[in-house]
Amino acid sequence: MTITRREFFRLSGSAVAGTTASLLGFGTLEAVAAEVRPYKLARTTETRNTCPYCSVSCGVIIHTTGDGAKNTKAEIVHVEGDPDHPVNRGSLCPKGAALLDFIHSETRVKEPMYRAPGEAGFKPVSWDFVMDRITRLMKEDRDANFQAVTEDGKTLNAWATTGFLAGCATTNETGWLTYKAVRSLGMVALDNQARI
Amino acid sequence: MTNGWNDIKNADVVLVMGGNAAEAHTCGFKWVTEAKANNGAKLIVVDPRFTRTAAVSDLYMPLRPGSDIAFLGGVINYLLSNDKIFHDYVKAYTNAAYVVRADFGFQDGLFTGYDAEKRDYDRSSWEYEFDSEGNVRVDPSLRHPRCVFNLLKAHYARYTPEMVERTCGTPQHLFQQACELIASTASSSRSLTALYALGWTQHSKGSQNIRNIAIIQLLLGNVGVPGGGINALRGHSNVQGITDFGLFSNSVPGYMAMPKTSEPTLEDYLKTRAFKEMLPDQMSYWQNYGKFYVSFLKAMYGRNATPENQFGYDWMPKVDVNLDTLRQFEMMFQGKMNGFICQGFNPLLSVPNRKKLINGLSKLKFLVVMDPLHTETAHFFENHGDINDADPSEIATEVFLLPTNCFAEEEGTFTNSSRVIQWHWKAAEPPGQARTDIQIMADLFLRLKDLYAKEGGAFPDPIMNLSWDYRNPARPSPDELLREINGKALVDLTDPNDPTKPPVKKAGELLDLFGQLRDDGSTASANWIYSGCYSERGNLTMRRDPSDPSGMGIHPNWGYAWPANRRILYNRASADPQGRPWSNRKKVIEWNGSQWVGIDVPDFGATIDPTTRATGPFIMNPEGTARLFTRGMMREGPFPEHYEPFESPVANPFGPVQSNPVARVFNGDMEVFGTSEDYPYVATTYRLVEHFHYWTKHARMNAILQPELFVEISEQLAREKGIAAGDWVEVSSNRARIQAKAVVTKRIRPLICDGKPVHVVGIPIHWGFIGATKKGFGANQLTPYVGDANTETPEYKAFLVNIKRINPMV
Predict the structure, then answer these.
(1) What average pLDDT does the segment B541-550 reach?
(2) How far is CA B180 from CA B90, B183, B728, in A?
(3) CA distance A16 to chain B (A)
(4) Closest partner residue to A117 among B398, B422, B434, by Cβ?
(5) pLDDT value of residue A6
(6) Model-level ipTM above the cut of 0.90
(7) What do you get for the CA distance between the two ends of chain B, in Å?
(8) Residue B587 DSSP label
(9) Which end of chain B is more exposed for a tag (fewer CB within 10 A), N or C?
(10) What is the pLDDT of residue A38?
């Protein structure tokens, strides 16, 4: 007879099961096997990553379901410290240890959102809509307020009426591409969270 | 960090001040534990609160928030008056012996050249004397009354233990013990590491706190050695990287500066940055500035950057005024800003004086937020009572919230505090329609380029000429971008000494290191200090070999540390002027007769013979030495001087100038600073071990651990104000009032400063109105709108409040 752990508890009616199992007519071996919870990470894929919180940058291993095949969808089910990492050596703090809850937070943004003037809240919209509208607003502002020269005629080529605050939990590659794009527009109201 | 996380284990003394590593950098702090357990290290903690770092210290002492310079100045005075300095190091490797101009001086709290109207200095007298050949005048005997050493001594003679106690509230006997422990590292064989975080930077004179520890570490000979250094424990996972990439108003990647309008040509720009050496034999490595900058312009504009158009120099905007975050919000507040884009940043909770922020954001035409989470900034227009007092119907700002991936859903590199660049791999797809920041930025740029191509508009040249040479222009890959960052040869690079040899690099090949960069347009590199991280050997940031052959915590094949995979900066200073290690215990590199060798990549010319050429170890400075006296580089003076926070309960015991005389204060902000008559208590802000800024309040586990805002007060203050643990209290500053539960604790105790008791109110920062925690007020509703004079980091760590018990909130 094979039963799952859940069924076993249902049958036994209690989490205190082992010693009472035989009373319910199960063989000892079956009862022991039923008590051992299947190791949930046995069939997951491990991916090396870095904790996004503080700058100790602890190594983490992210466990996802599936083996990466095309017909599987990887879902993150577990995050733990990377034991090989020279700095954290497998440990995580109370923040890093709860990364799974950040990844699956209910308050993650899942679709582009738009709030019109005077409205009380956001409504979901398409990527095309937001990107079109944002770039149009940016161009209007840039064309109206770009300063090619200073009052005394010196080259300036700056656009100061739209600001850009870069994050600092984004990658270096993002940082560089952002720098490139933002400076090509002549943006000078540029800053990032490092200051604060 | 000059050193790294693992290197902390080599320390003999650990000073944690201006930080709380055990709670805020928990897994890095284990290396302090390691130093204590296996290196006999002693831990000193100086903090207004008895933190968990303090709980495992060998020596803890409190100080009043905002009085760090008085404390550290007192340490300098102790070291100098008790002759506890590492003499050979100080003489050979610092500017102690340099003679300063005769017109330099300090009187009544001000250095020479102050202009009260401009709230700024003419810094020209803060300079060395030069001889007719342009070399600094040096007095190796240290007898010259105007040599840096004697000026330093005179400046800090006023910082007596009595003054330290009077200003900081730190009992003299504890201060004395700290000085003795710190001084025990004034030798060749012992080192002290200084660990700090925002507790030192979030002050109106935060940069000078760091200067203070730099002076101490140089006097002790603790820079460039294992277990030493000046170690900023930085905040977010890639705050180091984004700083390296210069995403600041006035910066260019790799710690270069944006050009100014006074530099109309590339030649003008480079001329002022020639960094000619100030003494014979020096390297002055910034002399290569032109190579780094031209290679950067080639990375920006590619083929379109030519010698004829000064490599696109005119396309870069010119920046005369630094438009930092505080100034940006000030501009918004004044209605001078129309659009605002926040890429993974929640300024509504992290910039001071929330009332002003809501007001500013409400005046924008549009706000774009790119974030994995619903941030308060994106939802700023919502009304959440006193927590966020806004009226959506009155706010005309268009708001866009763009979903992005989180760390687990993308690949790329972060750079940690130790400057180690580490690749991470993607584990899953982002939820719903979320996109990477790279994809969003590419889309934004390509759409704008398309609009300019079709419609024309203001100066489209830099947009049309930007290099966008990616396999899929709409989705540049992190791999391609990291190659672009590392840099490559654009033509065959021949050996300059012998052009007949086969090329050093063939056209298109990735460069081995920044030493191969050139200023003639034949190389491109987005960020010179990262050059070497992705060479023809492969992507070295992916390396995961944890081995540490020397056992000194170097781990040379784990990721890649900029610059040049060097793990301890200034490590040339670990050896004496002849190239012999000062001590076997603290050995990093040495001269073997023909080259520099050791356990780390030498921070020096690999074949510079120290027995025949007196090149200093601080090769980024044109002097070749480190600066005890910073010349004109810091806005408020070449030596740190104690000034009170802009809101302080005491008159500055050190002199008539109350607060930082050059800190920038906008109109209207000065008027809302509070006084100690109305707001008698000192408040300070901090983080909790269970939370990270404003992220973890979205995570259920952390919300369970710390669900609700509280403020911490001492038992004494609680008694005085009739507050019991768990009571509701109202904390008010001259800008706002907040409500919270009271935690009454022994961790904070009243201090006696200038003869009167000073109570401290502790305010953790982690709450907002979105997420899994309870809604809560933010410390930034109370804090003053003023920043450090050099960096504009807001003064979050010392301001004035009042507190009273209130009826329970419903």
Answers:
(1) 98
(2) 19, 5, 44
(3) 27
(4) B398
(5) 46
(6) yes
(7) 47
(8) -
(9) C
(10) 81
In this model, does residue A33 exceed pLDDT 70?
A: no
B552 CB-near residues (< 8 Å, 6+ apart):
B7, B10, B226, B588, B599
Q: Could you tell me the CATH number of the domain that includes residue B155? A: 3.40.228.10
Query: How many CA atoms lie less than 13 Å away from B242 in the CB half-sphere?
Result: 30
The answer to whether B237 contacts A196, with C-beta atoms less than 8 Å apart, is: no
Of B163 and A20, the one with more pLDDT: B163
Domains within chain A, CATH numbers bracketed: 5-35 (no CATH), 45-103 (2.20.25.90), 113-195 (no CATH)
State the Cα–Cα distance between residues B572 and B547, nearest whole angstrom.
23
A interface test, pick of B30, B52, B236 with most A CB neighbours within 10 Å = B236
pLDDT above 80 (res A28): no
With an 8 Å Cβ cutoff, is A33 touching chain B? Answer: no
A65 CB within 8 Å of a chain B CB:
no
Q: pLDDT value at position A30? A: 63
Q: Is the pTM of this model over 0.90?
A: yes
Q: What is the pLDDT of residue A9?
A: 43
Q: Does residue B1 lie in a domain region?
A: no
The partner residue sitting opposite B249, judged by closest CB among A121, A173, A188, is A188
> Predicted confidence band at A71 (pLDDT cuts at 50, 70, 90)?
confident
> Is there a contact between B25 and A55 if contact means CB atoms under 8 Å apart?
yes
pLDDT score for A18: 42
Q: What is the CATH number of the domain that holds B716?
A: 2.40.40.20
Is residue B779 scored above 60 in pLDDT? yes
DSSP letter at B318 equals P
Q: What do you get for the CA distance between the two ends of chain A, in Å?
A: 62
Domain end (from B232, B267, B296): B232
> Phi and psi at residue B694, in whole multiples of 5°?
-115, 25
Q: What's the gap in Å between the CA of A40 and the closest CA on chain B?
A: 17
Q: Where are the beta strands (DSSP E) in B51-147?
A: 59-61, 106-107, 110-111, 114-115, 120-121
SS3 B548: coil
Q: Is the Cβ pair B241, A172 closer than 8 Å?
A: yes
Three-state secondary structure readout of A118-160: CCCCCEECCHHHHHHHHHHHHHHHHHHHCEEECCCCCEEEEEC
With CA atoms as reference, the chain A residue closest to B373 would be A108
Question: Is the residue at B634 inside a domain?
Answer: no
* Rounded alpha-carbon distances, angstroms, from residue B800 to B488, B516, B644, B684, B805: 54, 53, 12, 9, 17
- Is A91 within 8 Å of B434 when comparing Cβ atoms? no
Average pLDDT over residues B762-776: 97
Under 8 Å between Cβ of B21 and A56: no
Listed residues B401, B432, B448: the one ending a domain: B448
Q: What are phi and psi of B555, to 5 degrees?
A: 45, 65
> Given this model, what pLDDT does residue A16 score?
43
A70 touches chain B (CB under 8 A): no
Convert the pLDDT of each residue in B67-84 to its tens digit.
999 999 999 999 999 999
Compute the 3-state secondary structure of chain A and give helix, strand, coil in percent, each to the nearest 5: 35, 20, 45
Residues 6+ apart with CB under 8 A from A70: none
**Domain for residue B163, yes or no?**
yes
Please give the average per-residue pLDDT across B550-556, as a whole number.
Answer: 97
What is the reported pLDDT for A196? 80
Which region holds residue B255: left if phi is over 0, alpha if psi is between -120 and 50, else beta? Answer: left
Q: Which of B202, B200, B68, B199 is nearest to B794 (CA)?
A: B202
Provide the pairing of β-strand B114-115 with B120-121: antiparallel
pLDDT on residue A181: 98
Q: Which of B404, B417, B701 sits opposite A56 (nearest CB)?
A: B417
Question: What tens digit of pLDDT does each residue of B648-698 get?
Answer: 999 999 999 999 999 999 999 999 999 999 999 999 999 999 999 999 999
